[in-house]
């Protein structure tokens, strides 16, 4: 029964005992490296696994060293980064204050104070050290009104339509004291 799969080498009781030094006739024991085709494959797999593991450990060590170097580098430059961030925030805050001052200065002089924001350079109106130069802001708004008079606010206080003859009027003459005086005035005129 040479064709019987149960009597094939490695399928019987001899092949089930891994790692034993057997006395079988030409059977390969799976636990022994270096013996037979399966043993060579296992030895190559173990060697490949060790090589991959060593490479992974080396990459991990390199990554840890790089992370430590970057931490030291960041710690060394962190102070200058904070100073730059503070300066940027200070400039933004100063620009906001200048825009608010410009709106306030343009409120009575321009029809729309937003025109001053659109037409004037805000960065030139800030003084040294982030202080706002109120005189420069007022001068800039005055110069804008001179250059573009159509942006100026109405100075007369009258409505856009002017006087249309409606509403109460001031009397040219004082009101008569009695109704009889009123009639005399009406017929005398």
UniProtKB/TrEMBL annotation:
Residues 32-69 have a biased composition (Basic and acidic residues). Residues 1-83, 159-189 are annotated as: Disordered. This is Scaffolding protein. It comes from Streptomyces spectabilis. The lineage of its organism: Bacteria, Bacillati, Actinomycetota, Actinomycetes, Kitasatosporales.
């Amino acid at each position: 029964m040479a064709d019987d799969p149960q009597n094939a080498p490695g399928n019987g009781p001899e092949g089930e005992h891994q790692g034993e030094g057997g006395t079988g006739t030409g059977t390969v024991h799976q636990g022994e490296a270096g013996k037979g085709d399966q043993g060579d494959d296992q030895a190559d797999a173990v060697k490949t696994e060790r090589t991959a593991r060593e490479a992974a450990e080396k990459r991990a060590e390199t990554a840890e060293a790089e992370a430590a170097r970057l931490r030291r580098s960041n710690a060394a430059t962190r102070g200058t980064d904070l100073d730059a961030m503070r300066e940027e925030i200070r400039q933004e805050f100063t620009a906001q204050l200048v825009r608010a001052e410009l709106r306030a200065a343009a409120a009575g002089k321009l029809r729309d104070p937003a025109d001053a924001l659109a037409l004037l350079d805000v960065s030139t109106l800030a003084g040294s050290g982030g202080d706002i130069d109120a005189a420069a802001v007022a001068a800039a708004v005055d110069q804008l009104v001179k250059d573009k008079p159509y942006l100026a606010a109405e100075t007369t206080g009258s409505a856009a339509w002017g006087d249309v003859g409606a509403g109460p009027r001031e009397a040219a003459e004082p009101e008569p004291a009695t109704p009889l005086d009123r009639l005399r005035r009406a017929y005398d005129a």
